[in-house]
Amino acid sequence: MKNIKLIEVASEIGAGTRGASLGIDAVKIAALDFMSNFFIHFPSEKIPTENKLLFEPIESPYAKRLKGITTMYERVSKAVCDTLKSNFFPVLLSGDHSIAGATIAGIKMAKPKSKLGVIWIDAHADLHTPYTTPSGNMHGMPLSISINEDNIEMSTHDIDEATKQGWNYLKNLGKIAPKVLPEDVVFISLRDYEKEEKNLIEKYGMKVITTNEVRRKGTENIVRSVIRYLSDCTDIYISFDVDSLDVSISKGTGTPVSNGLREREVEDLISKFMQMRKVCCFEIAEVNPTLDKENLMAEIAFNILQRSVNILMMN
């Protein structure tokens, strides 16, 4: 049986829309509404945030709030690393998805020799860099940080020296770069990305599983093929951005996209992945109750969280 530790990161400085920092409390409210004592069961750690920066002017237009993100990366990677080293399974509840890069860094710091596979359940590729970003929002960059990629050949911006140094620091956090090989990343329900990101996906032959493929083949077959594909990885991290869900249900997130997964499909996928012994960390991000009706997204996120953790407990 795995010992589970919840790591709460209510940070939203990487996002373009406000409100994701309230996502964790919204999930806790959902638990109360379902009369669940889930949040009393497990030890949890709250990581201090830098959300005060939201009220200050932006220094790096192509890597917004980079200094705050760096502070968050140091805190979160340390928390994840310490959690794994004390033989706990880290389950992260995060505000915006930029934090995933810190989670990956923490896994590699705890397991430097591991070959890490990443299952990225998200409408977006999050493969932008300060050189290519259309928005400057760092929640669009965690995977390029993790694979140590600048994507210079698709560059559209000139980056100032301070941004360049800060960006390189993030990629090399824990003195390991890349932390994940691009061919060890699997995208599920990816459907909204720019030509710069497409360039990287094609250049490295990164595996993309579309929503339609999930429907056509069924979750069981998808999970099997992903397990086969990542078979030479020693550890696997699952990152779930709630905008992977279809826009009909994913009102409560900053960047909803049509043709997404149904609640049941996500639940089935994640719970089947959670049965894999190699899975060492799970993260849920981007619940934004300020954009939602009747806390629906947080309720869905809580159901998925609860089912996933129950499976971990049984394994």
Per-chain topology:
Blueprint: E1 3-9, H1 23-33, H2 38-41, E2 44-46, H3 66-85, E3 88-94, H4 100-110, E4 116-121, H5 142-146, H6 161-171, E5 185-188, H7 195-204, E6 207-209, H8 211-217, H9 219-229, E7 235-241, H10 263-273, E8 279-285, H11 296-314
Parallel strand pairs: 1-2, 1-3, 3-8, 4-5, 4-7, 5-6, 7-8
Helix pairs in contact: 1-11, 3-4, 3-6, 8-9, 9-10, 10-11
Tell me the series of helices and strands, N- to C-terminal. EHHEHEHEHHEHEHHEHEH
Question: What is the domain tally?
Answer: 1
Radius of gyration: 18 Å
Which spans have pLDDT < 50 for at least 5 consecutive residues?
none
Overall helicity: 25-40%
* Largest sheet: number of strands, sense, barrel closure: 8 strands, parallel
| Count of discrete alpha- or pi-helical segments spanning 4 or more residues | 11
Class from secondary-structure proportions: alpha/beta
> N- to C-terminal separation?
6 Å
Shape descriptor reads globular
User: How many beta-strand runs?
Assistant: 8
**What's the rounded overall pLDDT mean?**
97
Q: Please, what is the CATH homologous superfamily?
A: Ureohydrolase domain
Q: Going across the biggest sheet, name each strand in turn.
A: 2-1-3-8-7-4-5-6
Please report the first level of CATH classification, the CATH class.
Answer: Alpha Beta
